[in-house]
Amino acid sequence: MKKKISIQMMAITTLAILSTVILVIFAFYELFEKQILDDLKIYAHMLQADGMVEEEKLEKYRAGEDNLRVTLINGEGKVIYDSEFGSDSLGSHRDRPEFVEAVKDGEASVIRNSDTIQKSSFYYAVRLYDGNVLRLAREADSVLSVLLSIAPIILGIVVCLWLLCAVLSKLLTDSLMKPIEQMANELDHLENVESYEELIPFIRLIKKQHEDIVKSVTMRQDFTANVSHELKTPLTAISGYSELIENGMAAEGDVQRFASKIHHSANRLLTLINDTIRLSELDIAETAGHVEEVNLYGIADTCVSMLKVSAENHDVTLSVNGKPVTVMADKQMIEELVYNLCDNAIRYNNPGGHVLVTTGESGKEKYLKVKDTGIGIAKEHQERIFERFYRVDKSRSKSTGGTGLGLAIVKHIVAKCNARVELDSQPGKGTEITVFFS
Question: What's this model's pTM, rounded to 2 decimal places?
């Protein structure tokens, strides 16, 4: 990037230098031409002021002026006198532009360029009081000739300026890139990087993204470690019980009990694998899948019916209340969200407890609320319960068969549906989780 910036700056610098030099040359040459014509005009008017112009006077005047050609032409265009050529050797000047304009307007100026000798001839003509026309002329180098004559000097100046600009360009590029290089080297301490005001929003964004990446990497590492640990427990149980049965070490009365333990661990393993796969799918998916009009009350009622047996096994009553409300969402995700909230409320409830699922409207928002009379969640745990494998009561979770991923799945679904979730819980009094849909 530094190399690209330097090259672009030097290209612009080179173009600017060359353009400036050429424009300055042409500007000065314009002034040079104007100065010559002004001088010729002054000389012509000085002679005109004397009235009758004679050859002797012209010769005497020209003797004091170098490189000045004087021509006197009568009203018919015939050359009466010329300081460089004999009057007889010159043809009629009646068609010369400076003569024609001088006769008509009283004075005229003309510049004629010769590509052959790389010279420019400057003419100034004035009509005298006796009707004759006095023409003064001077030759000067053409703009191309001037340019070629000073080309070495111009080249030297351009090279010096280019080298100076190259050094300044490098210093400027280094100065511009310094904060960005510091950012790259100090991603963990971006607040210490001195930068320009315009880069502050960019630095904040980079800092946030870096923190998110670090957090994501840490979470994935923790997730991998937790998955390994969670998988190891049921697999160890399955391996241990099956080994006892295989080696005939289990008594006849214990075989059925061991088989039940194996079945329970296998189910727990299968649930854990399914939840892990689903969580990975939600991580990959950027948005919700097939969005359609979904009836929250209908889904809640179906979920309550599905979990009746599980609720009875945990000695918990489960019911649904509210009114039919619809939201635009992925139906499968909403079903998963309701299932996980209800399943979690059942598992962490008290014997004889109750779970109530309510749907309704609050202002412009639709909501789904799951309230239980369970063990509740202490304040210090409430911010972390949506993390993967985070359990408030680990021993209770394992005894009820929970994977620790239910609320993490809920969090992902809420984000995919552009919804928001609120938690209200007190230890010993139960928990209320409400999901609001806009």
Answer: 0.51
